[in-house]
Amino acid sequence: MKLFKGKKYKYIHTRDIYLDDIRAVFFPKNFWEKYRYLGSVPYKEEGRIFDALLPLVLLMDYESKPWWCPRWFLRFLHLFGNDNSVVKVRNWKLHRLFTKITKGNRLVDYKTKWSENDLRIHVNGSNRTMDLADDIERGFYNRYKKEVDFD
């Protein structure tokens, strides 16, 4: 059931907000819905990439969520301020509030490039977060290379 209709203005289109989106804000049913406010978190809770990114997502959640702010409020701001997107802005005031509360921490993108063993992670955050992302990239490559290398 559609609760809020999206808007269209020239090249900018916001999405419709359904009852399931509101349910995901208050009652997330999986890892992706719970930590979606951080950006591009893994959708499937299995596999090599999820195991590699799990510590990074938990660290970002620890650094982004203040003790006084409930996680459902951050998911609410992400839905109505950012349109549940890394690049869109639905409401500038809510977007600025979300960015101020989370200190701009964001998992922008992750992907495997050229082959399955080359994981690339793009993160906005503190030096600790960026160092962990670099270490995960390097360790992921080295572990997978050992499994594939036959020499």
Briefly characterize the structure.
This protein has 151 residues and is α+β, with helices and mostly antiparallel strands. It is 50% helix and 15% strand.
Question: How does this structure look, described?
Answer:
The chain is built from six helices and six strands. The longest helix is centred in the last third of the chain and has 22 residues, at 127-148. The chain has helices at 19-26, 31-35, 48-64, 71-82, 92-102, 127-148; strands spanning 2-4, 8-9, 12-13, 17-18, 106-112, 119-124.
Estimate nothing, just give the exact number of structural domains: 1
**Helix/strand class:** alpha+beta
Q: In order across it, which strands form the biggest sheet?
A: 1-4
Task: Give the SSE order as H and E letters.
Answer: EEEEHHHHHEEH
Catalogue the unreliable spans: none
The count of DSSP E runs of length 2 or more, i.e. the number of strands, is 6
Assembly status: single chain
Q: Describe the main β-sheet briefly.
A: 2 strands, antiparallel
Shape: globular
Question: Residue share in helices?
Answer: 40-55%
Radius of gyration: 17 Å
How much of the polypeptide forms β-strand, as a percent range? 5-15%
Terminal Cα separation, in Å? 57 Å
Q: Whole-number average pLDDT?
A: 88
Number of helices: 6
